Amino acid sequence: MHSFDFSTVKALFLDLDGVLWNGSEPIGDLKAIFQKITQAGVVPILGTNNSTRTPASYQKKMASFGVQIEQNQIISPAVGAAILFKEKLPANVKIHVFGSSALKEYLISAGFILSDESAEIVLVSLDQDMTYKKVETAKRLIDNGAVFYATNLDPVLASERGWLPGGGVMVNAVETCTQQKPIVIGKPEPLLIQIAQKQMGIKAAEMVAVGDRYDTDILGGIRAGCRTVMVLSGVDSQETIKIFDRQPDLVCQNLNEFADLLLQHKGN
Ligand SMILES: [Mg+2]
Q: What pTM was estimated for this model as a whole?
């Protein structure tokens, strides 16, 4: 049926919306699904582009579905940015955040100094209180030499109210007035997935990216050198991905089906 080599799989980089849940509704019995993954000897990593929620809040949400997960198994561009900036920059670096208060709080808790006056880095993300003044501040700091980073370029964001404007809207505003392109941390850029691999000390070939969207999850996985599994429980369908040259390595109805395959081929 397929030539997917399950024996080399050590970790999953799992998208959340459309894979684990749709809004507040879990997709399948998450407790049983995660038990199968663990029983197969595979580490699940929750990898989201959403930086408006902290790892602690996702940990809580998973717990409400009966799944115990460590905070270091949850990675967002906020987490990725903190790891990246610590690696690359001196400890006293000043960062300007044009984004949510959750993102600001996370970076402060990670030991960074945030500033609106001067900064070596401007990090742009989803800001549901976006104003002209915030765009102006980001522009001024970037014009003065700050490096422009973006958590993601997502055009839209899933919510219980339907599709809302995503982080890409704020990034585009800054891009337009600075005429500069950001370094993007989230999917479909490979950076976030590569950071997760490095943190775990595993090779790209040992990680499988699982997602419901081709243009973020699957493309990000491909760019990071992972194998990819598309689930049909979210945005994309067999029909919508036909146009892409490079197909996912495997297509499953949902995460449960993939967990069954993992356990069947890998479990002992
Ligand atoms: Mg998704």
A: 0.91
